[in-house]
């Protein structure tokens, strides 16, 4: 039976209810951005991702072989998530090895295979091609991060790059949850920021003509699948932006 309400030790005074959210929220467990359903205290504006609220004491991940990942409510020493490269600011799964691995609860639960719109994407810590957003195989120097890669190997996006794109647009106020007040101009601006490739990749694509247009039409479809996999089924403002990714390529 699915849990829809319970008391959490980090918020003992009130019952947390599983609620849908049409606007982004900051999880009070891992401190990461969240979309869609979450456990929420209506009185205190307290939110927890489902993955953070219902975290298990330990877990495993196939990309971190021979590692038992233990749940911790906090950690020390400037840790970062192996999947997305973001700093660990709260809840985390961490292995016990000397060179410990860390995963945000939501990153631990990332879909390993995404199938949709005729594509199959696999979560991987090794990439055959550069990320279509940052034009690099690494998130930053020395940090590879995880990526979603198409079965053909041509379409690749870092989990970190997709999270950064959505976070940037949230900070700019594009996901306000009020669909009637999201103007076409605002949606188009957010669309450009989310869908645009790196300058180097875009310039290369411009020289390829119609073949490049087909490539980027598929790349945007792939990006939509990845956004949904990372943040859940899009709702509210983000749904408008994500759907625009697809509709804008059909012209």
TrEMBL record:
Keyword Zinc belongs to the record: yes
Record carries keyword Phosphoprotein: no
Annotated Gene3D superfamilies: 3.30.60.20
SUPFAM superfamilies named among the record's database cross-references: Cysteine-rich domain
Entries under Pfam families matching the protein: C1_2 (PF03107)
Key words of the record: Metal-binding, Repeat, Zinc
InterPro entries (alphabetical): C1-like_sf, DC1, PKC_DAG/PE
Recorded GO MF terms: metal ion binding
Domain Phorbol-ester/DAG-type: 13-67
Top-rank taxon, per record: Eukaryota
Name this protein carries in UniProt: Protein VACUOLELESS GAMETOPHYTES
């Amino acid at each position: 039976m699915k849990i829809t309400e319970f008391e959490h030790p980090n918020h003992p005074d009130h019952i947390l209810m599983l609620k849908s959210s049409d606007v982004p929220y900051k999880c009070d467990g891992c401190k990461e951005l969240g979309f869609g359903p979450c456990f929420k205290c209506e009185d205190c504006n307290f939110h927890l991702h489902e993955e953070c609220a219902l975290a298990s004491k330990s877990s495993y991940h196939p990309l971190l072989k021979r590692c038992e990942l233990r749940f911790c409510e906090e950690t020390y020493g400037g840790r970062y998530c192996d999947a997305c490269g973001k700093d660990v600011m709260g809840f985390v799964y961490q292995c016990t090895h000397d060179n410990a691995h860390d995963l945000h609860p939501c990153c631990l639960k990332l879909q390993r295979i995404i199938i949709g719109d005729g594509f199959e994407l696999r979560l991987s810590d090794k990439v055959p091609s550069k990320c279509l957003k940052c034009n690099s195989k690494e998130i930053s120097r020395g940090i590879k991060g995880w990526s979603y890669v198409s079965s053909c190997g041509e379409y690749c996006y870092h989990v970190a790059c997709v999270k950064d794109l959505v976070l940037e647009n949230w900070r700019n106020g594009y996901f306000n949850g009020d669909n009637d007040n999201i103007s076409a101009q605002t949606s188009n601006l957010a669309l450009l920021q989310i869908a645009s490739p790196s300058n180097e990749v875009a310039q290369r694509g411009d020289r390829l003509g119609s073949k490049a247009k087909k490539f980027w039409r598929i790349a945007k479809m792939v990006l939509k699948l990845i956004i949904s996999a990372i943040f859940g089924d899009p709702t509210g403002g983000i749904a408008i932006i994500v759907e625009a990714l697809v509709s804008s390529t059909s012209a």
